[in-house]
Amino acid sequence: MVHPTVSDQPIIAARGLRKVFGSVVALDGVNLELRPGEFLTIFGPNGAGKTTLVRVLSTLTRPSAGTLTILGVDIPKGSHAVRSQIGFISHQALLYPNLTARENLAFYGVLYGVPNLCERVTELLQQVDLAGFSDRTVKTFSHGMVQRLAIARALLHRPRILLLDEPYAGLDQHAARLLRGLLAGLRSPERAIIMTTHNIARGLELCDRMAIQVGGHIVHEAPAGGIDSTQFEELYLRFTAKG
Amino acid sequence: MKFLLTTGAIVRKDILLEFRTKELLVSMLLFALLILVILNFALGTGSAPAEGALPGVLWVTFTFAGVLGLNRSFLTEHESGGLHGMVLAPVDCEAIYLGKMLANFIFMGVAEAIVLPIFAVLFNFPILGRLPALLMVLALGNLGFTAVGTLLSAMAASSRMREVLLPIILFPTAIPVIVGAVNVTGRVLAGEPLAHSVPWLKLLGAYDTIFLVVAILVFGYVIEE
User: Fold this and answer.
1) Which residues of A touch B80 (CB under 8 A)?
2) Concatenated DSSP letters for A72-123?
3) Rounded to an integer, what distance in angstroms lies between the CA atom of residue B124 and that of residue A208?
4) Which residues contact A207 (CB under 8 A, 6 or more apart)?
């Protein structure tokens, strides 16, 4: 795999990030740095705080404590300024089931102020292999098609940061393979990608750094090169058993 | 310009969704019709007490049906994740609020436009000559009700008791608007010119402005996590 050039300046820098929901500590002092061109996969069991971390990084959720800088801007103070540079794919597709694929993308395109919107929507629908379904309502789509459209939505404004929260969840093998091809094509020297997943094989195949999150902490972080899924599974089980 | 485009896109999206599903208007209209029929049986027509109750009948129908619409407004956003999608975009929260509020205002207006002739027939009360004044009162009442209703709907939608919570918090808050609207509607239906209701109209206008400004200011905090 050809790795994109990685710049020295972090695009995301988190120090001691903490998020508390009532008495539940979802994030407990997370430190994280990500540079343009990097692809980081975060593994972790249910309840590890992966979704909360991605939501905080997306500016959707305010951190309770700690510092977060995205593209040099302090978050949450400057959230509004960096949102045009973040693409977010979550458990929910953030799409309206009763709008067509094209209408959904056009709606978000206006919100993001995308220039030449019609052309961009057509281009993205082709990229995610949904051009033939552009005028069908999303509620008629399979889960795999919805996930591909969610990727198109997240890419509409050509974001420099892409956050993927469990993108493989609920996909069959064929859809997962299609998605993998799509995600591989999203890598670029300017773009940083963070993905959370339970799927060790899928998670390792695209990333160049991997982290394990347990109980709101990043307990292990390392380059992904040279480690296979069996070795990683043992490592993962060792850390998650401790947690 | 971006602000107006965002507001317009949200209104257009909500109208398009309603055009496809017809969930909101159909349920509002059916509920309004049921209330009118029940009240028609309860009050009868033609008697003096019945005529005195007509402004109340009208606003009970509009506000009760309106709550159904307002409840659906943010429920759809929560179910689809659309609210998160909008919040993640580089748009002002105020534009999101105004878009949702205007869409609710339009839906309530359409429901009222359909309900009004049915009301006139059921209660055997001619409204044609009073229509311009009546429409003005309806617009003012609607504005205040949807201004505060849209904000409270956003608050209620993230709660587990969302279906029951909205009416419980909306009606007490909207009382000044409802009292004002019922009062002016009564005078209009009695054939008085609008000039006789200037103090009430001022009150309605003042509450509309206050509710709108407060809702715009606090909406960002309501939808924030």
Assistant:
1) 92-97
2) TEEETTTHHHHGGGEEEE-SS----TTSBHHHHHHHHHHHTT-SSHHHHHHH
3) 76
4) A39, A40, A41, A195, A224
Q: How far apart are CA B33 and CA B119, in angstroms?
A: 9
pLDDT band at A7 (very low <50, low <70, confident <90, very high): low
Quickly count: other Cβ atoms within 10 Å of residue A89's Cβ: 23
Chain A, nearest residue to B16 by Cα: A99
Residues A52-85 pLDDT 10s: 999 999 999 999 999 999 999 998 888 888 999 9
Helix, coil or strand: residue B175: helix
Across the interface, whether the CB atoms of B16 and A83 are under 8 A apart is answered no
B contacts of A113 (beta carbons < 8 Å): 2, 5, 90
- Backbone φ and ψ for B173, nearest 5 degrees, come out as -70, -35
Distance from C-alpha of A47 to C-alpha of A62, rounded to nearest angstrom: 18
Instruction: State the complex-level ipTM.
Output: 0.89
pLDDT at B169 over 50: yes
C-alpha angle A210-A153-A212 in degrees, rounded to nearest 5: 15
Q: Cα-atom radius of gyration of chain B, to the nearest Å?
A: 18
The CA distance from A88 to A154, in Å, is: 6
**Helices (H), strands (E): how many in chain B?**
8, 0
Domain boundaries, chain A: 12-242
State CA A217 to chain mean position distance: 18
Question: A93 — contact with chain B (CB < 8 Å)?
Answer: yes
> Which residue from A58, A93, A107 is facing B88, i.e. has the nearest CB?
A58
CATH superfamily membership of A12-242: P-loop containing nucleotide triphosphate hydrolases (3.40.50.300)
pLDDT given at position B46: 60
The DSSP line for chain A is -PPPP--SS-SEEEEEEEEEETTEEEEEEEEEEE-TT-EEEEE--TTSSHHHHHHHHTTSS--SEEEEEETTEEETTTHHHHGGGEEEE-SS----TTSBHHHHHHHHHHHTT-SSHHHHHHHHHHHTT-GGGTTSBGGGS-HHHHHHHHHHHHHTT--SEEEEESTTTT--HHHHHHHHHHHHTT--TT-EEEEEES-HHHHHHH-SEEEEEETTEEEEEEE-TT--HHHHHHHHHHHHHH-
Q: How far apart are CA B184 and CA B180, in angstroms?
A: 6
